[in-house]
Amino acid sequence: MNKPDFFKTQKEAAAYAVVTDRTIRRWKNKLGMPMTQEGYYIKTELDRYKRAEEIKQICREIDVAGRDIGVAVGTLNNIKARLPA
Question: Which CATH class is domain 6-82?
Answer without folding.
Answer: mainly alpha
